Amino acid sequence: MLTVALGKTLGEFTLDASFDSESGVTGLFGPSGSGKTTIVNMIAGLMRPDRGRIAFDGEVMFDGAAGIDLPVWQRRIGYVFQEGRLFPHLSVRQNLDYGRWMGGHAKDPAAFAHAVELLDIGHLLDRRPGKLSGGERQRVAVGRALLMRPRLLLLDEPLAARDAARKQDILPYLVRLRDEAKVPMIYVSHDAGEVRQIASRVVRLDGGTVVATGGVELLG
After folding, report:
1. How far is the C-alpha of 185 from the C-alpha of 27, rounded, in Å?
2. Cα separation of 143 and 119, whole Å?
3. Model confidence over 145-180: pLDDT tens digits?
């Protein structure tokens, strides 16, 4: 279980949010500017909270009062950004293997083959990111994060830059990832339809605070 209780002030914006996330996919849902990306950046260790606590399965990753702040590499969290952020000078195969290397794991052909099959990217392995569509880049980014063998996967608006047709091309792969990879996920989006398809639990944010938690019925 992921337990989050965080506070952060950024200019005139103040975040004060607490929630728990168990197995499956938890959707962080709310309008732009409600604090969703700030929360996942703090969970990942990319931004330091002003106060609060983050723990996963009993291990404390951040505790402001106790002075605990694990570095990014010790948190074992995979992060898929909105833009994918692949290395343009590396092939798809090399980008995927970078995830394995970042996780500190030995080469595992079976795990590599499973990720490739899961995301249907076998025909892309020798291409560079510049030769991929936006949806293909996102699938490779998911594969790279998965090959880190994370205990938690964060996906920050992974479909925000896609039109409706492209979203429907990618969503089935994310649903399959949810069902087959068995890695807990935090899925950030302001699109209710998107969250409804993939999340089992919803944390609704507005103005930097959690206004409701529950099932997908919160999406209306």
Report:
1. 8
2. 7
3. 999 999 999 999 888 766 666 677 788 888 888 888
CB crowding 189-209: b at 16 or more within 10 Å, else e = bbbeebbbbbbebbbbbeebe
97-143 pLDDT tens trace: 998 888 888 999 999 999 999 999 999 999 999 999 888 888 999 99
Q: Would the pTM count as exceeding 0.70?
A: yes
- Work out whether strand 77-80 and strand 152-156 pair parallel, antiparallel, or are unpaired: parallel
**Separation between Cα atoms, residue 149 and residue 78, nearest integer Å:** 8
